[in-house]
Amino acid sequence: MGEVNSKIEQIIDKLSKYNKVARVVIISTKGSAPRKANSQMFVTENHMFGSIGGGQLEYQITSICREHLATLKKFGREVRKFALGPSLGQCCGGSVNALIEYFHYSDIMEIRKLEQARNLIHELFTDKFPYEGNQSLSLDEKKFFQEKVIDTKTNLFIWGAGHTGREIISSTKSLPLTRYWIDIARERFPNIIDDDVNAIWTKDPTRLIKNFPDGGIHLILTHSHALDLAIIQSLLKDNRFYKLGLIGSKTKKVRFRTQLVKAGFSLNDIEQIICPIGLPEITGDEPFRIALSVAGQLSNWTL
Fold this sequence. Notes:
Elements: E1 4-6, H1 7-18, E2 20-30, E3 40-43, E4 48-50, H2 55-69, E5 76-83, E6 95-104, H3 108-112, E7 119-123, E8 131-132, E9 144-148, E10 150-152, E11 154-159, H4 163-171, E12 177-183, E13 197-201, E14 217-220, H5 225-238, E15 243-246, H6 250-262, H7 267-270, E16 273-274, H8 287-301
Parallel strand pairs: 11-12, 11-14, 12-13, 14-15, 15-16
Antiparallel strand pairs: 1-10, 2-3, 2-6, 3-4, 5-6, 7-8, 7-9
Helix pairs in contact: 4-8
């Protein structure tokens, strides 16, 4: 897994920029609903971040939030239930319970006390500030909501900065990933690289593997089959990855299998290699289509 992203940090960030913010969390659903429990969005007086499902549900909640924010002086909380039927202009047929918490910049010192928290308790029908813990002071489960506030991103290692590597970087920006991009020289990368991409270049990329964290997704797509093979051999020896993908055809995988068997790797080791990579439903050999296919597969792997 990769970098930690705290919901508390998100609240602090929004307050620092906008002074007042409403955080909306789906605490439960019944029947068909557009988003599952724990989905969240932030609403300020002029902006929205995230989504709890769009449509009239989101429109109405946004209106509720902004009306409350207009006169907000200190922390507040409310719980609203929405039936997702004709009265709301939606056809899902289910219902959602939404927790709305309103934060004012004057609350920021209290929020900072929760920066190291991993679990929060929200006492639903009070204006009591959220607090860290695994058990509510209320014994009635209907009166509190317990929430994990740490989201862990998966580490993605893209080996190769060619056309397809660049398209994968572009297509994965919104996924819950900490992205590393590796190649043999700086000039192989574009001039401008997104701030959230960790670009690394070295003449011998295989030397990096022992220093990388456990549990990452590795996609091998360098300019050289020999380098692809060397990286795969190093990753298989290290054997600390979550997924290992290799760009190419089934024929390429057969050739690599032969070479890996000669190098002493077992068939169980070799079968861990996913080749071709990407969703089979998305066809085409253009880099952007391959990237869309890979992004879809990565989305499934990081749910």
